[in-house]
Specification:
The protein is built from five helices and no strands. It has helices at 3-15, 17-62, 64-89, 101-113, 124-134. The longest helix is centred in the first third of the chain and has 46 residues, at 17-62. It is elongated and about 70 Å long.
């Protein structure tokens, strides 16, 4: 890009500086609103995850044939998480596939130690960090 073209772009931007400034203020206000909502959304997601887990467990008791494979996959994922936390931070978790209070606390400790959002839920970012530290694909 030559200097003449760059100057034209700068002049066009300058002629719209009021609109750009207003748009930037709106973006900042929206960003602040989102930042205030993030903790609430995270709590809702944690609660939703618990409801899903509890619902699946109840369904597993009432009609195990409908979700047997799904429950086994969930238990495998939680067992992997528990074993990974034991390996990475000596969490002392029983590797049983149940995402209980001790597992949630160990996840929070892991998240805190690695600068992640501390919510006790092993989401995408937490899993990515675990995989990175283990140095191997799951």
């Amino acid at each position: 890009m030559n200097i003449g073209t760059m100057l034209q772009i700068v002049m066009r931007l300058m002629s719209h500086s009021n609109e750009i400034s207003k748009a930037m203020q709106e973006v900042k206000a929206a960003s602040n609103s989102i930042e205030r909502l993030v903790p609430q959304v995270q709590l809702v997601l944690v609660d939703a995850g618990r409801v899903i887990t509890n619902t699946r467990q109840l369904l597993g008791q009432l009609a195990p044939e409908l979700i047997q494979t799904d429950i086994q996959e969930i238990k495998f994922d939680v067992k992997w998480l528990q074993q990974s936390l034991n390996t990475l931070m000596n969490a002392g978790l029983v590797v049983d596939g149940d995402y209980g209070q001790l597992t949630a606390e160990a996840v929070k400790n892991f998240q805190r130690a690695h600068g992640l959002t501390v919510d006790g839920w092993a989401g995408v970012m937490t899993e990515a960090k675990i995989l990175e530290l283990l140095g191997a694909p799951r």
